[in-house]
Design goal:
Blueprint (H helix, E strand, L loop, with lengths): L9 H13 L10 E6 L4 E7 L4 E7 L12 H18 L6 E3 L8 H11 L5
Parallel strand pairs: 1-4
Antiparallel strand pairs: 1-2, 2-3
Helix pairs in contact: 2-3
Length: 123
């Protein structure tokens, strides 16, 4: 007997891809996992230490620096990446493993990663 875990559709496909990624990617205190979560309006990035199960630093378009942001969602994602890299440097983190959370590496997800790299984070 087979059990349908995900069903059909776009969300199910993203969850399937995410599980495939998470089998290979794990964060440590020295090299946390950079997780990207996006919605239609916002994007959230957090660096997670999977050993202790804690979020080390996070940044999103819901925070104060983005209150009066004028620009595209891709530009906002890049700025979130830069902000996250700055916070990571302050926390003493310079390396990370990238977890795209099942999203395609394109558009806002790629812009966030590029912004983090420009901010000095090694992904």
């Amino acid at each position: 007997m087979s059990v349908k875990v995900f069903g059909k559709g776009t969300l199910a496909a993203r969850r399937r891809r995410h599980l495939s990624i998470r089998k290979k990617v794990s964060g440590t205190p020295e090299k946390p996992r950079l997780v990207v979560t996006r919605s239609n309006r916002n994007i959230v990035a957090q660096m997670v230490d999977d050993v202790h199960g804690v979020t080390v630093v996070s940044a999103s378009t819901l925070q104060a620096p983005f209150k009066d942001f004028e620009g595209s969602k891709v530009e906002a994602a890049k700025k979130v990446g830069l902000l996250l890299a700055q916070k990571a440097k302050e926390a003493g983190i310079c390396d990370a493993v990238f977890d795209r959370n099942g999203y395609k590496y394109h558009g806002r997800v790629a812009a966030l990663a590029d912004g983090a790299r420009e901010g000095g984070l090694k992904i």
